[in-house]
Amino acid sequence: MNTLRAVVLNCTLKPSPAPSSAELLGREVLAALADHDVDGEVIRVVDHDVRFGVSTDEGDGDGWPGIRERILAANLLIIATPIWMGQPSSVCKMVLERLDAELSETDDEGRLLTFGKVAAVAVVGNEDGAHHVTAEVLQALNDVGFTVAASASTYWVGEAMGGVDYRDAGPKPDTTGTATKTLAANAAHLAHLLADSPYPAG
């Protein structure tokens, strides 16, 4: 079985080296994917000068083209985002807006360049909203050509009106941990299938 490649986009609002619960959960997803012949990397989006827009390159030193190149070279894309006010982070929404440009990018056979790539999402927060965020992000990724496996999400939310972050609460092997392992197994399985048998030309 060939080793596949995954990219985790950490959509925290905090630049490095600030601690990030989204980064922690994203790295846990990567660790779980490693058990299924997938390696990868985490990219903290705010560490790059990504511009607002809906094109593949907004010019003037835009940091998105470099990130996009790494996404297109990968088989899996995992969006790791915190919840803010019940919503995906503003960084996550900017990433989805930039991915909208992929609707105009096709290969020689008319397929979107994102066809054959598998998407998943990892969500952390201190309020209910993980299902809402997961629905928004996975729907957007599917709209721009990514394929979504069964149970393609993992999340952790703290107690309502609480103040504990995931990185402080520690892993939850029987809940978040189990969801992370299922995400990794299903997403990797689907990515291997698509790598061996791509979608037909349009």
Automatic annotation (TrEMBL):
InterPro entries associated with the record: Flavoprotein-like_sf (IPR029039), FMN_Rdtase-like_dom (IPR005025)
Signal peptide: none
All copies of domain NADPH-dependent FMN reductase-like, residue ranges: 7-151
GO molecular function annotation: oxidoreductase activity
Entry protein name: Multimeric flavodoxin WrbA
Organism encoding this protein: Actinoplanes italicus
